[in-house]
Amino acid sequence: MELYCLESDIPVKAQPDPNILYDDRVLQSLLTTEDRFLPQCSYFQRVQKDIHPYMRRMVAGWMHEVCEEEKSNEDVFPLAINYLDRFLAVMPTKKSYLQLLGAVCMFLASKLKDCRPLSAEKLCMYTDNSITPRELLDWELVVLGKLKWNMASVIPNDFIEHIIRRLPLPKDKLVMVRKHTLTFIALCATDDRLAMNPPSMIATGSMGAAICGLQLDHTDQRLSRDNLTDLLAKITNTEMNLILQQSKRPFSKQRT
Fold first, then answer.
1. 104 alpha-carbon distance from chain centroid
2. Assigned domain for 15 exists
3. How far is CA 56 from CA 7, 81, 199, in A?
4. What's the CA gap between 216 and 171, in Å, rounded?
5. Is 42 exposed, middle or buried (0-12, 13-18, 19+ CB in 10 A)?
6. CA–CA dist 34, 153 (Å, integer)
């Protein structure tokens, strides 16, 4: 008797749970715990001697390209960057190991967030085989140890649905707003100057940039820049001037 596998290659995602998204306690819990998963210092000045900001930007850009090429879950890249920054904040690292570190961070993040994690062999291929699977697996334990196995980091993506459902957005624009917000969050992740900013601030600024960029205020004055900034500030308890600064940054990066 022959057995036929009828499973689809297309991953099936669970639907959002309204009981979670509409419960203010969940959002408050995220806001309360987010600082625990931030780098504890500006590591270029205090920890790293051999690695410079432009190197971090280069490896972040490479990590984003790999995640895009592999069509990884949208949470994988910002989570991997979180691991990268937290590791560099506690462990002096030679520049020759930076790409290996980036590969390990993607390896770990994809295990946590993707239904089909990236394999060690495939990640080594993306480095032009400059590292081996054995090295990647050995460094996996090093990274886990330095991060004290605290891998369920709060990232900007965790705030997106909570913010969207508390804004007066037209239903036919939700997909576009979400897509643009994720793009801006990814852009922010490549900027080392934002590494110590709370994820909620990154999320609110990216959401503001997305909504303003789509010019949704033309159909609803509640979404004008001033009104929107006030709404976002109340949702995530973020200072209004910080939201304005953050919402402008993705546009400046996109133009460059």
1. 16
2. no
3. 40, 10, 19
4. 12
5. middle
6. 8
Q: Are residues 162 and 89 in the same domain?
A: no
Question: Measured between alpha carbons, how far is 33 from 220 in angstroms, rounded to an integer?
Answer: 34
Distance CA 59, CA 100 (A): 10
- Mark out the alpha helices in the chain (DSSP H runs): 18-21, 24-33, 43-46, 53-69, 76-88, 98-113, 120-126, 133-146, 157-164, 174-189, 199-213, 225-236, 240-255
pLDDT, one tens digit for every residue, the chain (256 residues): 455 555 556 666 777 777 788 788 999 999 999 999 999 888 998 899 999 999 999 999 999 999 999 999 999 999 999 999 999 999 999 999 999 999 999 999 999 999 889 999 999 999 999 999 999 999 999 999 999 999 999 999 999 999 999 998 888 899 999 999 999 999 999 999 999 999 999 999 999 999 988 888 777 778 888 888 888 888 888 775 655 555 555 545 444 3
Q: How far apart are the first and last CA of the chain?
A: 61
CATH number at residue 178: 1.10.472.10
Q: Which of 101, 124, 146 is the last residue of a domain?
A: 146
What does the block give as tokens for 138? 């050995």
Q: Read off the pTM.
A: 0.87
Residues contacting residue 157 through CB under 8 Å, at least 6 positions apart = 74, 75, 78, 182, 185, 203
Do 138 and 208 have their domain in common?
no
CB-CB contact of 60 with 131 (8 Å): no
- Which residue do the tokens 């080594």 mark? 124
